[in-house]
């Protein structure tokens, strides 16, 4: 598969959501809807005005999302197949794993010094805000494959940030 740009991945995810009627989900009920909102914001970022740290963070983020998109593209036919979690213990287990991955990724996003003026071209602030939004995803509404895709999202981003940012 030819590598897609962030805008192409965003457009494809939007088509998937529309075709599968996933767009009827309420906020934070669907990984795909929440991720689309994140990608819409982050794909508009103007890299040519970014400082070195923002460029590094931007590239790490989109490299991880490209890898996530490749998994998504392979699995797209099965993503919305209804399937129940086999036990509440499994839901709790996956929720705990996701929470740990989430905390790790968020801890890797460099904080902005509070005594400085925040530049509109700083990707750290934009990414941090968007990651906080996606932490609101309702894990109790997710099926088995959704849990796998959510874990991939946080795991792939954590791997990229570990390698490129920290």
Low-confidence stretches: none
Mean pLDDT: 88
What's the total number of strands? 0
Strand share of the residues? under 5%
* Total domain modules: 1
The separation of the N and C termini measures 30 Å
Order of helices and strands: HHHHHH
How does the major sheet shape up? none
Radius of gyration: 16 Å
Globally, the shape reads globular
Q: Can I get a quick summary?
A:
The protein has 166 residues and is mainly alpha-helical.
Describe this entry's structure for a reader.
The chain is mostly helical and 166 residues long. The protein has one domain. The chain contains six helices and no strands. Helix 3 (52-75) packs antiparallel against helix 6 (144-164). The mean pLDDT is 88.
Describe this protein with a few key phrases.
166 residues, globular
């Amino acid at each position: 598969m030819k590598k897609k740009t962030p805008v192409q991945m965003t457009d494809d995810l939007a088509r998937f959501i529309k075709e599968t009627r996933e767009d009827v989900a309420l906020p934070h009920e669907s990984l795909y809807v929440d991720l689309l909102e994140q990608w819409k914001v982050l794909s508009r970022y103007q890299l040519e005005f970014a400082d070195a740290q923002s460029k590094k963070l931007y590239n790490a983020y989109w490299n991880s999302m490209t890898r996530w998109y490749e998994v998504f593209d392979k699995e797209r036919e099965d993503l919305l197949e209804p399937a129940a979690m086999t036990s509440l213990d499994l839901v709790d287990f996956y929720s705990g794993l996701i929470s740990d991955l989430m905390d790790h990724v968020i801890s890797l996003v460099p904080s902005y010094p509070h005594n400085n003026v925040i530049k509109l071209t700083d990707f750290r602030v934009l990414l941090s805000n968007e990651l906080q939004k996606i932490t609101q995803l309702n894990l109790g509404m997710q099926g088995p494959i959704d849990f796998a895709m959510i874990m991939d999202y946080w795991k792939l981003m954590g791997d990229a940030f570990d390698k490129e940012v920290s």
